[in-house]
Amino acid sequence: MRAGVRPDAGTQDGGASRPAVLLDCDPGHDDALAILLAGATTELVGITAVSGNAPLERTLHNALIVTQIAGLDVPVVAGADRPLVAEPRHAAFIHGESGLDGPELPPLTREPAGGSAVRFLLEAASARDDLWLVATGPLTNVALALREDPSLAGRLRGISLMGGSYGPGNVTAAAEYNIFADPEAAAIVFDSGARLVMAGLDLTHRFRIDAERQAALRALPGAAARFAAELMTAYGDAYARSFGPDVGVPLHDPCAVLAVTHPELFEVELRHVAVELTGTHTRGMTVVDRRPGERGAEPNVEVLTDLDHATAFATLAAALAGYA
Ligand code: RIB
Ligand code: CA
Q: Which ligand is nearest to the CA of 94?
């Protein structure tokens, strides 16, 4: 057991059952792996798409095509096509205009479920008391649902999100993409009173997929693993083009799933986190209060600080191979 680990995060009975998860995402290469991981390790009740890495029509398409390739019969629902206040800002330099550049995608045969992501999210959370919401894109859908029904915060088992940082950002010196893309939405979520687990850049950059791990994915059986390997090759090339060959390729979004399914892999600090909305240089920053002991403000977030990345990768690889 690693120091400061949360043994109970996602599972009811210490690990045997699959936690119930609704995944809100903006696929996106690493979101696609989060979908495949969640599909194999959780009771995945549904997927909601949000504008982020690519426009909504692309992230919705991409969420559908990933579930189609994996044979996951999971409802996929369209969410917000723009942030609450900020202007839309996509990440084509990493994910391409399609949001999933790299692999040749088959013709889409799946249809999105009707209705809105907010309605789907609120109904899913009212139908049970053990639902985790995993969010791996801008928090627009989550904020809209909380604004429509604030009691959602107390009904969810928790919100495990990939976003923010207590160190450098990746869009600006201070801000990480998912938070920067919709800071007003993030502020609503961080102020909501829900149980929050934050996988920020400080953590996700410790879970990298290097050439050896890319080769390991390529050696896995089955179409889903082959698709994931092709995605990671394209994702790695885009990272190298944008950040240089030796930055390494962080697997951001799968961390938010693993934090629920395998909490024992993580170290955590209970911290107060607020989202900066007005700073000239700091808008979209997650201000994490890491002052020692009692001097810090009342914690509202479980901030993940480290993980057993070898076991995390082995868990991801086993999940992908399991689709074969
Ligand atoms: O900053 C990394 C995050 O932004 C990841 O969720 C990635 O998919 C992009 O959405
Ligand atoms: Ca994402």
A: 1
Determine the residue of 37, 136, 141, 142 to mutate for testing ligand 1's pocket, defined as the one with the most ligand atoms within 8 A of the Cβ atom. Answer: 136
**Using an 8 Å Cβ cutoff, are 90 and 53 in contact?**
yes
Q: Could you report the per-residue pLDDT of 94-114, keeping only the tens digit for each? A: 999 999 999 999 999 999 999
30 lines ligand 1 (CB under 6 A): yes
Distance, CA of 299 to CA of 282 (rounded, Å): 21
CB 259 within 8 A of CB 217: no
Q: Residue 294's pLDDT is what? A: 86
Q: With a 6 A CB cut-off, is 170 part of the ligand 1 pocket? A: yes
**pTM, to two decimals:** 0.96
- Residue spans of the domains in the chain: they are 17-322
CA distance 79 to 8: 30
- Tens-place pLDDT, residues 12-57: 444 458 999 999 999 999 999 999 999 999 999 999 999 999 999 9
Nearest to 221 by CA among 68, 323, 105, 310: 323
Start-to-end C-alpha separation, the chain: 31
Say if residues 73 and 147 touch (Cβ distance below 8 Å).
no
Fold of 17-322: Inosine-uridine Nucleoside N-ribohydrolase; Chain A (3.90.245)
